[in-house]
Design goal:
The protein is about 60% helix and about 15% strand.
Length: about 150
């Protein structure tokens, strides 16, 4: 986020922002229904539109934040995979697919396929390409199952 842009925006539009805040305060205190929130949203959008911030810029910011969040979750999931590989269990499913489970990670895939479906702490993260880390988790889970005799 570019703080200079926001600083300049507040400097140029301080009076409009102040008026909008006063109106928002009055609306929130006087109107007690769903209409209150619609009015609040309209006022906020009006301030943004008046300021010259386009919806494309907002969309771009949201996309950027989403990409950063997904990247961070992916990195965290890969680190957890590495840590939990020693305890992962390999389960061969009746339909020819496999499932690998540990405390926080679940991988579902088809032998020889280049993608696995990843679930991290109960939240599906989509299909990922099988990289070196995922391949090592698969291999370790197979070894764990062979050594421990667990699995279906």
């Amino acid at each position: 986020m570019d703080w200079q842009v926001w600083s300049e925006f507040f400097r140029q539009n301080w009076l409009i922002i102040l008026i909008a805040l006063i109106i928002l305060f009055l609306v929130i205190n006087l109107v007690k229904t769903v209409i209150r929130w619609l009015i609040v949203i309209v006022i906020i959008l009006a301030v943004f539109i008046y300021s010259g911030i386009s919806l494309d810029q907002i969309k771009q910011t949201v996309t950027s934040v989403t990409d950063q969040t997904v990247g961070a979750v992916r990195d965290q999931a890969l680190n957890v995979m590495k840590d939990e590989a020693k305890d992962a269990r390999f389960i061969q499913n009746a339909d020819g697919t496999y499932t690998i489970k540990s405390d926080n990670i679940e991988l579902n895939g088809k032998p020889g396929a280049g993608k696995v479906s990843v679930t991290f702490r109960g939240v599906p993260l989509g299909e990922w390409d099988v990289n070196d880390t995922i391949q090592s988790v698969i291999t370790k889970a197979k070894q764990n199952t062979a050594a421990g005799g667990s699995g279906s």
